Amino acid sequence: MAVAVGQKQADGGNAVKIVPGPVLLLGAPGVGKGTQAKAIMAAWGVPQISTGDILRANVSGGTELGQAAKAIIDRGELVPDALVNEMVADRLTQPDTASGYILDGFPRTLGQAEWLDRHLEASSNRLPVVAVSIKVSYTQLLRRITGRRNCPVCKSIYNIYLQPPKVDEICDLDGTPLARRSDDTEAVFEERMRTYDSLTAPVVEHYRAQGRFEEVDGEQPVDAVTAAVMAAVLRLRGTAV
Predict the structure, then answer these.
(1) Which residues are catalytic?
(2) Strand pairing partners for 179?
(3) How far apart are CA 153 and CA 174, in angstroms?
(4) How far is residue 38's CA from residue 30's CA, in Å, rounded to a whole number?
(5) How many angstroms separate the CA atoms of 91 and 119, rounded?
(6) What b-and-e string marks burial along 180-196, b requiring 16 or more CB atoms within 10 Å of the CB?
(7) CA distance 19 to 5
(8) How many angstroms separate the CA atoms of 190 and 202, rounded?
């Protein structure tokens, strides 16, 4: 099995390449997973593996798997795990995944997590998944979601609680009344949280039971959260520096 290597100086002063392996970022809606994924991808030079992207690529490319998925989607049905798993397995054969990747939206259920473990164990030279959850309080998440506003003209983004405009509900740049997404309400947020918790709890316990799970404080500055996530990955790989 491959060994993950920490970012440290080798003899001669050259940096040793990090091999983070597969990293699952977890976190409720609004914690900033997308921002953190982009930062980690840039720092470690690894891709993001998104089941949504994989599905769209297969459908638009007319692959055999994509044609099967399109027929299911056209019937108004959900693409089954078995087909999604096949697409993920195919994506993981591509060379850019050799050092690792950030998992986005997969595994979403316990069944998917167990399948991925079996698949990686059967693959040569593959590290197992490690999972890091970004934790933010319910109150803070609610403020992040329900406080979001945007300018329909210049597309500037605000938050009435955390980054408010100078004049309430008015864009600083062009004076346009700010807009709010129809789903940025407390009722919708509560439903999204219930769905997230019910799906994610078994996945978290799966990785926690195997010593492959850590939580980090997501209420720190963005750069500090990135550093905490990366340090957690290295600890879970046994290569903290």
Answers:
(1) 33, 108, 148, 181, 192
(2) 150
(3) 8
(4) 15
(5) 13
(6) eeeebeeeebeebbeee
(7) 6
(8) 19
pLDDT greater than 60 at residue 11? no
Tokens of 102: 């950030």
Sign of the dihedral through C-alpha 201, 205, 208, 210: negative
Task: Summarize the confidence of residues 110-132 as an average pLDDT.
Answer: 91
**For residue 119, how far is the Cα from the chain centroid?**
20
- Band (pLDDT 50/70/90 cuts) for residue 15 is low
Q: In terms of Cα–Cα distance, which of 45, 38, 96 is closest to 226?
A: 38
On whether the CB atoms of residues 206 and 175 are closer than 8 A, the answer is no
Categorize the per-residue pLDDT at 125 as very low, low, confident or very high, splitting at 50, 70 and 90. low
Q: What tens digit of pLDDT does each residue of 71-109 get?
A: 998 888 888 889 989 999 999 999 999 999 999 888 988
What gap in Å lies between CA 7 and CA 239, rounded to an integer? 9
Neighbours of 241 (CB within 10 A): 10
**What is this structure's pTM?**
0.82
